[in-house]
Amino acid sequence: MTIWDDLVGQPEAVQTLSRAASGEGMTHAWLVTGPPGSGRSTAAKAFAAALQCPQVGCGECHECRTALSGAHADVTLVATEHVHLRAEDVRPLIALAQQRPSAGRWRVVVIEDADRLNDTSGNLLLKAIEEPPPRTVWLLCAPGPDDVLVTIRSRCRHVGLRVPSVEAVAELLVRRDGVEHQMAAFAARASGSHVGVALRLATDEGARIRRREVLRLPGSVRGVGGAVLAAGQLAEVAQQESKAATEDRNAREREELLAALGATGLRTLPPAVRSQVRKLEENQKRRATRAQRDVLDRSLTDLLSLFRDVLVVQLGAGVELTNAEMAAEVEQLARQSSPEETIHRMDAIAQARFRIAANVAPLLALEALMVQLCPVTR
Amino acid sequence: MAAPSGTRKKSTSSTGRSGGSARTVPLGEVAPAPLVLLVGPEDVLAQRAMDDVTAAARAADPELSVERIAASGYERGTLALMSSPSLFGGGILIRIEGLEAAPEALVQDLTAYAADPVDEICVILRHAGGARGRGLLDTLRSAGARETLCQSLAKDDDKLGFAAGEFRRSGAQASPQALRSLVDALGSNLAELAAACRQLAEGLELSESTSARVEVEQVEEWFGGRVEVTGFKVADATVAGRADQALSLLRHALATGSDPVPVVAALAAKVRALAKVSVAGRGRSAELAPSLGMAPWQFDRARRELSGWTEEGLAAAVLAVARADAEVKGAGRDPVFAVERAVLTVARARRP
């Protein structure tokens, strides 16, 4: 076993990173890019572990395990549950990067969501990333090189990950998570080789049901009224899901905060406490926004995979369908429209994703999308 | 924060039972009393009430001395000092403003005073609403204070009544049309409305005109061309297909402080309602509306507005509004242009 085992289907990246960890071509800042679910964070964490491990990535020693879990004193993992990494989130990293490693060989700062750095926070880090002290290394992860500021990109060495094969992802699910073979194969295919989503699909019945319902929409919705109602459903589901994911945690955090401030059980909160609680609630709201957007984005990606299949059938490409279990629906959609229309619909999905990310009311963006997916005169 | 918590709890529960107690006095009937409470967010109304009480008290006692206290800068003992009998006789009226920001010293002094108010002295207390100072208000209420609510006026009828009252106060009259167009122009801010009424009344006096009352022409002359419009009115005109009216309303809305974003949101809500109703089929609105997540009146209204809309028109409208929402939030260069284009597109998408 080595530290690289969970990074499936990426032989080139593993080679580059492990050679760097053993001293060949090491540099002070790395940008790991790859499509969602290809294992950017996994790669960065494994690299961090390899940098700390005396055997350059055995995967079993104390250094490896603590680095992977985020408990290593010299490995800092930065991720956000909000829409952006803000300046106040990253400012502490500048001072941190100047410190010598306390126990390990390197001080490693991993920014898992470098694409969520905005202009302010990105520029704040420029100098720190450009010239860190000799034993500090930055690892940034983003979907593509274009997703980070050009000035940051130019200061990093780039490692690209590719979409792992369906077989490799299925094999990982079976080996690492003990998923049954058939289910692993389905999940890996349906998720488009997205490791995290595949795991979720394989282990969560609710996620499979929701996915199926989303994919049924284009074939079943009729007319503008139906499209608007379907969009409402989609938004509602996303909201519920994000609520379910955050509600318990929100209540617990509030309890903990009140306990920490000694205000448990007070009917009216003193002003000082109230402002703290308000701050917490604002943070929770940001987190809910992000969660809702993530769920919607997932649904839209699922829809995209459906129309990809439709296009595959229309063009007679003869490659495997992502949604093989929905072959009948795909066939029907393919008969009812032309390839041009399918492309238009895929563009509409991309546009809706872009709009939701740009703060358009999700319901409105979805309505416009559903109207385009289910044309009026047909 | 205010009175000792024991007192506060007790009085909260007592008001909870008695609700709006018998001592609540309507705005028009405020009169001097040992303790007069003016509670509510509308400053103009409270100011009027205060002036009325002061005038009434002064009419009863020309020697009256009026003292003013600003709660925020209150120093301990001031109230006792002012409420002690004057060497030269004559009544005393004390106006305390800003009770919602009362410091501890004032709370304690008032609590002590309220326990044994002097009948000959009139204390007017102004609280702008909000949670602060609740305990003190309850203490005052249980001490027998006469309370008057100064709520902001939401309905147009109330505003018309207020404007008419303002004219009366200045010894003038206005025609119904004049009142209506004045409220249309300035209704959102009562202070502005009051000032406008006074100006018009004074103008009437100076001009020595033959007419005894303010007419709509005078209002138009000074305040014409200004219409306060919300996004909803713009949306109403738009889905009714009245492009010209919708555009001019939109301009008014933007000029009187509406932002393009809520205008687009109102438009989106309107188009959404139309689209939902278009698939509802026949049936009673009370049964159909809940399944679409609408109130029956919304449903009925949308159903009426649906005439003239086709499937294609609705589709075009949905797309135009979504595009505009993206553009007013940064995807376009000019938010005003984006919302204008959406209004035009939607209005034209309806079959004339």
How would you describe this protein?
The complex is a heterodimer of chains A (378) and B (352). Chain A has helices at residues 11-21, 40-52, 62-69, 87-97, 119-130, 150-153, 166-177, 181-190, 195-203, 205-220, 223-260, 271-315, 327-336, 339-357, 362-373, and strands spanning 29-33, 75-78, 107-111, 136-142, 157-160. By secondary structure, chain A is an alpha/beta fold. Chain A has a five-stranded parallel β-sheet with strand order 2-3-4-1-5, with helices on both faces. The radius of gyration of chain A is 23 Å and the shape is globular. The relative contact order of chain A is 0.09. Chains A and B meet through helix 11 and helix 15 of A and helix 12 and helix 15 of B.
Q: What is the topology?
A:
The complex is a heterodimer of chains A (378) and B (352).
Chain A (H helix, E strand, L loop, with lengths): L10 H11 L7 E5 L6 H13 L9 H8 L5 E4 L8 H11 L9 E5 L7 H12 L5 E7 L7 H4 L3 E4 L5 H12 L3 H10 L4 H9 L1 H16 L2 H38 L10 H45 L11 H10 L2 H19 L4 H12 L5
Parallel strand pairs in A: 1-4, 1-5, 2-3, 3-4
Chain B lengths: L4 H14 L16 E5 L3 H18 L4 E6 L7 H6 L8 E6 L6 H12 L5 E7 L6 H9 L3 E4 L6 H14 L3 E2 L1 H11 L3 H18 L5 E2 L1 H8 L7 H9 L3 H13 L4 H19 L6 H7 L4 H10 L5 H21 L3 H15 L3
Parallel strand pairs in B: 1-4, 1-5, 2-3, 3-4, 6-7
The residue ranges of chain B in which pLDDT falls below 50 over 5 or more consecutive positions are 1-22
Give me the CATH architecture of the largest domain in chain B, please.
3-Layer(aba) Sandwich
Task: Report the oligomer.
Answer: heterodimer
From the 3D structure, determine the CATH topology of the largest domain in chain B: Rossmann fold
The secondary-structure element order of chain B is: HEHEHEHEHEHEHHEHHHHHHHH
What string, H for helix and E for strand, traces the elements of chain A in order? HEHHEHEHEHEHHHHHHHHH
Would you count the extended β strands of chain A for me? 5
